[in-house]
Design goal:
- The protein is mostly beta strands.
- Helices cover about 0% and strands about 35% of the residues.
- The strands form four sheets. The protein has a three-stranded antiparallel β-sheet with strand order 3-4-5, with no helix packed on it. Strands 6-7-8 form a three-stranded antiparallel β-sheet, with no helix packed on it.
- A hairpin with a 5-residue loop joins strand 1 and strand 2.
- The radius of gyration is 16 Å and the shape is globular.
Length: about 180
């Protein structure tokens, strides 16, 4: 099973998936929800809005960095007030760190997630999906960016993949 996220933030479990949605955000009539990351077992998760806001719900802890922290790696998620440019969210197993993808292909780490450089950065809003590759040590070491035409672009230690659904010039792909 899995979970479908609608543009208003509605979460819809399917295929027998169990999901606790207490406190999940919902923007009635406003198509601003962009991505969802679910905790193992469906006890909660996080919803990404188009501006980069990360909203926790269920048993998921809030994701934010303290304003003053002795830990230089404690970074807050990226946020673009009034600019609908956030496209994808990956929360790591520690439930407080991860990555946001912007529409240009920029990858923004938060929490204690290490910075990862993508080989793609387009000058226009075409990046759509993100998957993070984990090393055998359990640490992120690369990943994949999906473009709107269906192209899959690997970076870091992630092995190369190809897409059989690449459609040049047609912005139809959305998520992995």
């Amino acid at each position: 099973g899995g979970v479908l996220l609608d543009g208003y933030g509605g979460l819809h479990a399917f295929g027998g998936a169990s999901l606790t949605t207490n406190g999940s955000p919902y923007w009635a009539g406003w198509d601003i929800a962009r991505a969802v990351s679910i905790m193992p077992g469906g006890a909660g998760g996080w919803t990404l809005d188009g501006y980069g806001g990360v909203h926790s719900w269920g048993a998921a802890p809030p994701i934010s960095a303290p304003m003053y922290s002795a830990d230089p790696s404690a970074r807050a998620p990226a946020y673009w007030p009034g600019w609908d440019i956030a496209r994808a969210l990956v929360v790591l197993p520690d439930k407080v760190s991860g990555y946001e993808l912007d529409g240009y292909g920029g990858l923004h780490n938060f929490g204690a997630a290490p910075p990862l450089l993508t080989p793609v950065y387009w000058g226009w809003d075409i990046a759509r999906g993100l998957a993070i590759h984990m090393a055998t040590t359990g640490q992120p070491d690369g990943g994949y960016v999906l473009d709107g035409w269906g192209g899959i672009h690997n970076f870091g230690a992630a092995p190369s993949l190809s897409s059989s659904h690449y459609t040049f010039g047609v912005d139809i792909a959305r998520q992995f």
